[in-house]
Request: fold
Amino acid sequence: MSRSTPPVGEGPGFDPEAIRRTYLEESEKRRSASPPTRRAVAESAVASVEDPFVEPGFEREPLRDEVDVVVVGGGITGLVTGAHLRKAGVPLVRLIEKGGGFGGVWYWNRYPGIRCDIDAYIYMPMLEDVGTMPSEKYTMGDEIRAHCQALAETFDLDEAACLQTRVTAMRWDEPADLWTVTTDRGDEIRARFVCLAGGALDNPSIPDVPGLDQFEGHVFHSSRWDYDYTGGNEHGHLTKLAGKRVAVVGTAASAIQYIPELAEYARQVTVVQRTPVVVMPRNNKPTDPDWFRGQPRGWQMERTENFSAITQTPPGETPPEHDIINDSATSLSKMTRTPPPELSGLLEGADYGTRALTTNYAAMEKIRAGMASIVNDPDTAEKLMPYYNLGCNRPQFSDTYLQAYNRPNVTLLDTEGRGIERLTAKGLVVDGVEHEVDCVIFGTGFVLDAARFPITGRGGESLSDKWAGGVRTLHGILAVGFPNLFLVGSPAQAAFPNNYAYLLYGQGSYVSTLVKRCLDEGFTSVEVHPEAEERWAQQIKERAAGIPAVDFGCAPTPYGGLISSGYPGGPVEYLRICREWLEDGWQRDLIFRSPSDATA
Reply:
């Protein structure tokens, strides 16, 4: 790899202009490399997208009934929404989930080494309601999956749920003020309300490169881990990989957890990297039971809001000084906000943008130095260095990923943004060189598919047509023309949180409050006023105008537009606005319909 590595100089210890040029060079490589298009694994014959955790041949009789609420999705989004509805006293809540169990991303992803990368005490929702104590600060996937099952059981969501079932269409029946939900099991379920809570991380994708169907070895996506091939389980023990040569394509959140596990058992691990990742120490530790049992009521929400306020207070505004969690995630935020003393002379009289960029440069210099100190081989260490501003890619936390490259059986192939060129019968080609392997594991993310099935609202309008020119909602939850439909979990016109469970908890409470009001007052439908939808769009625009704009030069990502469409004031402020609106504002912005209206 050839990089214009910034020289160390006087004062701050680096040359800001040299770093800026290096970042631009690295960003331009990825803009001009034209990475291969992606295809959903479901569209490929080389890997399976089927559920490996259920017995094949499941069948049941189709349902023809009516419920109060259908929740589409049995992951954390759907479970938290359903739990809030049940806590509010809504009797008939049905979750529809394509997997064979609850957990969503934690149901599908069971790769070795899987853990949460957010403090488990704030990531695992409703701990106080369920009584779960995470065994570690960053606990493993099977424990999170068990907590999801416990959520379903605690709030009686499991008995009425339809698992191994996919929704195929939803249509609003205007005379009846009901949704008709159809599924691939032949169900035709009538529901007063519907919550879309399906998440975005369930449709795995792979790069659409030549030769995918020519490779004679074994292939799978990390979200459909093949333990029949590797042996072992989420805790490791991949004994069937002895003597095997394994290639890993992708180095994002999943791969940094399973690459060390592969390295322990495989004969050779070849890692194909498009873009290096920021890696900070995880410093995981067991939960102290006495500490956990001694927490006062409400401690989880206090801890959650403190984390979000520290990590996501908008630029130019002051986050809280008290840091309850005090881990690598919160330290990253403080590093980018607080210039080190050695920058004082350089930043004197500088504008906000210059201060923010230079402080970010200093933080990344410190991060790169820490990463380089772990990797023994200088060439490998340099290939692993992330040369972009903090915030361009999600930072990762691990105590084993960088250390894996010190093993003699682990090789890093850095493609400088290009990715693999093609597969052959015997392996894969990078930079014109064929690397023979026995197995290729794709850790290449997911296809973002907002229109998974047709949703037809009032007057026959489809949701995809309504949003053809961009998402339009109130609070990211309610949409004109789609009565009794709630959108939960998307950051579009809502907020993009570092800790997603926080957003889901607040939106679930929002939904349950409105549903309960309708049921108590005898309203058959609720819909947002067009003026309220427009006011929210204007409020987002005005809030963004009040935040200092800093161009961090990030390369474009598939999710960039969706993330940037959210409320720019951060999740704490967004959820406060939602709570205040539910107290004072909802009557102005909503249209309620009763049986007498239908008669008239």
Residues 200 and 450 are 8 Å apart (CA to CA).
